[in-house]
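Batch job 17 of 40 flagged for manual review because the log was empty.
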Amino acid sequence: MVASGERLIASLGPTQLEHGGELPTTEVAFQTWGRQSSDNVVWVCHAISGDSNAAAWWSRLIGPGRAIDTDQYLVVCSNVIGGCQGSTGPLSPAPDGKPYGARFPRVTLGDMVAVQQRLADHLGIDQIALVCGGSMGGMQALEWARQAGSRVQRAWLTASAHAHNPMQIGFNEVARQAIIRDPLWHGGNYAPSAEPNNGLAVGRMLGHLSYLSEPAFRAKFGRRLQSEAERKQQADFLRPEIFEVESYLNYQGDKFTQRFDANTFLIVSQAIDEYECTDFASIRARLLLTSFTTDWLYPPYQSELVQNIAQQAGVRAEWLNIASALGHDAFLLDDQVQAEAVREFLSR
């Protein structure tokens, strides 16, 4: 396979889901970069708000000469089922031709990975040198290693966990409630022209609060106000002073609604809250775990815990806790320490 980076769609037929539902047809959006040889495939899994374009959102790590070198490896990334970037999800047509909406069946993270394995079969990929991802992507990488056995040689989880803790579930539930309580949600059966974007935007704002650390917020914004011209544009005369951080959160929330779907957030966030990997005995891959000292959304102890559980099951696992002031976003931004760790991990 010679890759172009173009988004393609694979039709994989019906999918039976873990909770008993079915997708009569399953389409998966995917992109590839590099050239395939016998054992040089790197499979990248995206985070909750990501998509198949890994070379864009992980550009610090993927590309010619980078840690995941597309001159050496074939890189593959697909949009998860339940998603809204080309794979079958709540925006897709159901058998009656209308969008699934609230009728979209419940999917699990295991379902997402099982479909990715079918995509690998479809593409003629037998062996995977590395499966990797951050946050939700790391949980998929772990599930890949659990499901695929000797097919996966290495798995790299960064800023991730084997199961969500109560705080992580709580963050997702508040974001879900912001959507559900939006008057336009209509039980998930909203019109494309009247989506619950206010609720989705608020949920995204909450997410951005958890992605950065307090030192990162302090360095990025402090208590600085918007410029006088920007403040004059504000319609609310009761709040003449608008902090930069407020403007940032509002901007990020509104921008998110232009590329994401509210029902997708509900489906995918529920899937990762439900996930818990308890079967490490079936893992044959070597594991690399990286975490970041100021990541309070996926704190370092969760990576250490995965290492401990894996080692107790006889799995080769190593953990690197990286000093960073960037919080959870460090897994996207750090192109130094974690990049070098990945280079070394791939070179073995």
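Reviewer: the log was empty due to a logging misconfiguration, but the result itself is present. The radius of gyration is 20 Å. Unflagging and moving on to job 18.
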